[in-house]
Amino acid sequence: xxxxxxxxxxxxxxxxxxxxxxxxxxxxxxxxxxxxxxxxxxxxxxxxxxxxxxxxxxxxxxxxxxxxxxxxxxxxxxxxxxxxxxxxxxxxxxxxxxxxxxxxxxxxxxxxxxxxxxxxxxxxxxxxxxxxxxxxxxxxxxxxxxxxxxxxxxxxxxxxxxxxxxxxxxxxxxxxxxxxxxxxxxxxxxxxxxxxxxxxxxxxxxxxxxxxxxxxxxxxxxxxxxxxxxxxxxxxxxxxxxxxxxxxxxxxxxxxxxxxxxxxxxxxxxxxxxxxxxxxxxxxxxxxxxxxxxxxxxxxxxxxxxxxxxxxxxxxxxxxxxxxxxxxxxxxxxxxxxxxxxxxxxxxxxxxxxxxxxxxxxxxxxxxxxxxxxxxxxxxxxxxxxxxxxxxxxxxxxxxxxxxxxxxxxxxxxxxxxxxxxxxxxxxxxxxxxxxxxxxxxxxx
Length: 445
Ligand code: AMP
Description:
Blueprint: H1 14-33, E1 37-38, E2 44-46, H2 47-55, H3 59-63, E3 67-69, E4 75-78, H4 83-92, H5 95-98, E5 103-112, E6 124-133, H6 138-154, E7 161-166, H7 170-184, H8 193-201, H9 212-219, H10 230-245, E8 250-252, E9 264-271, E10 284-289, H11 292-295, E11 303-309, H12 310-319, E12 332-336, H13 342-354, E13 359-362, H14 368-377, E14 382-386, H15 388-392, E15 395-400, E16 406-410, H16 414-424, H17 431-444
Parallel strand pairs: 1-5, 7-8, 12-13, 12-14
Antiparallel strand pairs: 2-4, 3-4, 5-6, 6-11, 7-9, 9-10, 10-11, 14-15, 15-16
Helix pairs in contact: 1-6, 1-12, 6-10
The structure holds adenosine monophosphate.
């Protein structure tokens, strides 16, 4: 077949798909610990939602959006990020009016940007993120940043740093933009065409430029920290104190401006190099947005949120060998030796699955040796073998694939016996209750 997947996309299957599910469920679990609830919004929205929120001066909207006209002549866009859709939904469903605040929501799903594919960059990628809507305290900002750090810890990442900066309030940004304009004005002829445009629409963006000569210029630009209004400076100081009280590693980054229009006050990024030293870029990023909810027609609610890129998280986990254990194991590998034993084995597999065992059913009728080899390859704990001898005697053969011990047991006792054996061996097949127990244990300590 000569049809290939579109540039910048990827298929996710087998071990990597398993890794996605595990990472997603770990992230969702942490969000729930911080008392967040789930929200799902459409993957396409009216284009105007993004031009008004993410901003029509942002690269994301100007260059990277998948925009199309539908059969009803509407301009729609695949979401380049999730915050806009979440806030649209909150306002449209009046959650900003009817909920106890802050309203805490998490999401996970695909987002789309027409970017040049490179390390850590795809055109369809996946984000997990949270929105903490209607906050009143700088500690809520610190708490939200800490949620992200906790998620990294749970996934086994070490040495995650949080790059942090404050964009201040509106008076801060107005004064700073003026100072940037004064600074960049004499260099305007030599900066890239994008920056020439940014100079007019949003000079803060010039600090975000990827062109090396522009970056060098940006490094010597005035710093926003010198322009923070007293209120913004005090607020920012409290956020940092909150983070320090949790021993979170912060790196003050006066150049960090983030490429979206809706940010104000605190912005941040999570960074870590993989063990192989590869920098996949920010693993996650976010900030405060104090005007977005009202700009989209809702209440004037200060808010903060962040998004993690799942592809980047998984790439870093995989480079450092932390995904080796994600392969799904099988509890019981059932082997039917001949066509006559298929129905019997088939029904037994159904029983095991109803009793919460991860069960594989082999109806290939290969030799015993080949069948056991297949069971071992699946990393099964036990093989349960059914030949015509066993079937006639209402028995099955159970083989422990670790010790090679084998026993014949009556078929009506096998489910019970397997429960006993797997408990004894410390293998749990009730994944959910396992997680909860672990959590309660920790709380008791
Ligand atoms: P942003 O909305 O640009 O702040 O991005 C939030 C996070 O999403 C980033 O930190 C990345 O982890 C991830 N991300 C953004 N763009 C891409 C992309 N093109 N491919 C993969 N991950 C991305």
